[in-house]
Amino acid sequence: MNRAIVAQFESYQRLLIESVVIARFVVVKKRMVSNRGHIRVRADLSDGGLLEFSEHLVIEDDSLVTDTYSFHWQNNQQQLVRRWDNARHHMALPHAPDHIHHGDGTIEGNPETPTLALVLNTIERHII
Asked: How far apart are CA 2 and CA 14, in angstroms?
């Protein structure tokens, strides 16, 4: 088990606990093996919406790297608000594979890999 991965997962739990828009959350899956880690979380939002996220982390050259990720945010009507991910199905977009799916069906390239802190901040700005 790698200390950097453990620390990262613990920081996610702190962010979720401290966020004003997270009503409750459950860690659906957490696995750490040597230099790899995977976490999947389901969080109920204070407005009745939902945030589900999954990240696969890997240690490369002594650095913690996000290999794959998905942050899926939906409203209290179970409709997509936004999903950030790096699945390799929109490789023609700028900044591929990083992209954002919007609730209106549009998809755009994303110049930065999102973090849980950025996603929570975006949701907080929308809800509060």
From this structure: 19
**pLDDT of 85-123, one tens digit each?**
999 999 999 999 999 999 999 999 999 999 999 999 999
Strands 63-74 and 22-33: unpaired
The total domain count for the chain is 1
71: three-class secondary structure by DSSP: strand
Closest of 118, 15, 113 to residue 64, by C-alpha: 113
- Counting every residue, how long is the chain? 128
Domain extent, residue 50, equals 3-127
- Cβ atoms of 25 and 43 closer than 8 Å: yes
Least Cα distance to 16 among 64, 59, 58, 71 occurs for 71
- Residue 57: CA count within 13 A, CB half-sphere: 27
Q: Distance between CA atoms of 9 and 39, rounded to whole angstroms?
A: 7
